[in-house]
Specification:
The chain is an all-beta fold. It has strands at 7-11, 20-27, 33-37, 43-56, 59-64, 67-71, 76-92. The chain has a single domain, classed as Sandwich (Jelly Rolls), CATH 2.60.120. Helix content is 0%, strand content 65%. Strands 1, 2, 3, 4, 5, 6 and 7 form a seven-stranded antiparallel beta sheet that branches.
């Protein structure tokens, strides 16, 4: 986890036989996530508060409260900067 971005792990991979991990993260205003790729796992995020910029491959949009996204393994993704966003994230094995 990045400094200044508190996260709480709700479910760990070793608790699910390697199938999923779930955590909740608060992204402070102005912070984001650099461009990256999850080569071996899918990712689902749910924005439950605030605003967050989401880019999936070449498509970029503003995510607001009650917005969800699904990222398949191998796609490029980036997030931020935020306006104090609360995010649940789920990763598949």
């Amino acid at each position: 986890m990045a400094p200044g971005r508190p996260a709480v792990f709700k479910l760990l991979c070793d608790q699910t036989n390697g199938s999923i991990a779930v955590f909740e993260e608060v992204v402070p205003t102005g912070m984001g996530t650099p461009l990256h790729i999850h080569h071996n796992s899918d990712k689902v995020i749910h924005i439950y508060s605030g605003h967050f910029i989401v880019r999936l491959d070449e498509v970029m949009e503003e995510a607001t409260k009650a917005t969800g996204y699904s990222f398949h393994a191998g796609c490029s993704m980036v997030g931020g900067p935020s306006l104090m966003a609360g995010i649940f994230q789920l990763y598949t094995g």
